[in-house]
From TrEMBL:
Keywords on record: Methyltransferase, S-adenosyl-L-methionine, Transferase
Flavoprotein in keyword set: no
Highest taxon above the source species: Eukaryota
InterPro entries recorded: SAM-dependent_MTases_sf, UbiE/COQ5_MeTrFase
Protein name, UniProt field: 2-methoxy-6-polyprenyl-1,4-benzoquinol methylase, mitochondrial
NCBIfam families to which the protein is assigned, alphabetical: MenG_MenH_UbiE (TIGR01934)
GO process terms (BP): methylation
GO MF, one example: 2-methoxy-6-polyprenyl-1,4-benzoquinol methyltransferase activity
Record carries keyword Ion transport: no
Length: 248
């Protein structure tokens, strides 16, 4: 679905997200809505965790003492099962043990379930959620849980589609009109053609349009207790990366 919406660019955007995270020894990352992952046969990775670990592997040797650890959280146990199988089949063996898979609700990470314990407080150096927060019922609750799980100095990084493009001048207005036509008619039609089901792609468009603007979302992040909020727009504003720091 992200391929259709972004015309494949979401992989580049996730690489940019990983570069901001800057993998380092001993780092602990919480990847929320990590889902199934999206490993490709050509080693172009669609999942943030897989990209993160492979980038670390390029920079540092893998050692049990200093290697980073990633906890992938998703509310759907079936998606987690698929993700685990993909990691086992396609991720290098020396990286597989660095991932923990946990079934939990992004809005209620403290709650233990039949699938496992809740997510502890002040336990992670980075919290990331890519193309997932707009699907949550309460953005405020998700941000509150993100703040709770991070250590002081921890980094929040959110990659999400934006409801409004950067439309400066005539060219920007034309781009907005073309994008609106593509999202309104093209994406649902492609969904029908590719997957035989229009509704998920129609929901995708509607969820993006209902998502807060970049400025409003930045304000919500600050209200959750974060500081140093920064917004980086990508592809003319089709999506954005919001980052912020938990000071205490």
């Amino acid at each position: 679905m992200n391929d259709v919406m972004s015309m494949g660019l979401h992989r580049c955007w996730k690489r940019r997200l990983v570069s901001i995270l800057s993998p380092r020894p001993g780092m602990r990352m919480l990847d929320v809505a990590g889902g199934t992952g999206s490993l490709q046969n050509d080693d172009v990775l669609g999942d943030v965790t897989f990209k993160f670990l492979l980038e670390y592997r390029k920079r540092f040797p893998i050692s049990s003492a200093e290697s980073p650890r990633v906890t992938i959280v998703d509310i759907n146990p079936a998606m987690l099962e698929v993700g685990q199988k993909r990691a086992t089949n396609m991720l290098p063996t020396d990286l597989q043990h660095l991932i923990e898979w946990r079934c939990a609700d992004a809005e209620q990470l403290t709650q233990s379930t039949s699938k496992g314990p809740g997510v502890p407080a002040a336990a992670f150096d980075a919290y990331t959620i890519a193309f997932g927060i707009r699907n949550c019922t309460s953005i405020e609750k998700v941000l509150a849980q993100a703040h709770r799980t991070l250590v002081p100095g921890g980094l929040l990084a959110v990659l999400e589609f934006s409801p409004q493009l950067e439309t400066n001048g005539t060219l920007g207005a034309i781009f907005q009109n073309v994008y609106d036509l593509y999202s309104t008619y093209g994406i649902p039609a492609l969904g029908t053609l590719i997957g035989g089901n229009r509704e998920p792609y129609q929901y995708l468009i509607e969820s993006i349009r209902k998502f807060p603007t970049n400025e409003t979302f930045a304000t919500m992040i600050e209200a959750a207790g974060f500081s140093h909020v920064h917004v980086e727009t990508l592809a003319g504003g089709i999506c954005a990366i919001h980052t912020a720091v938990k000071l205490q």
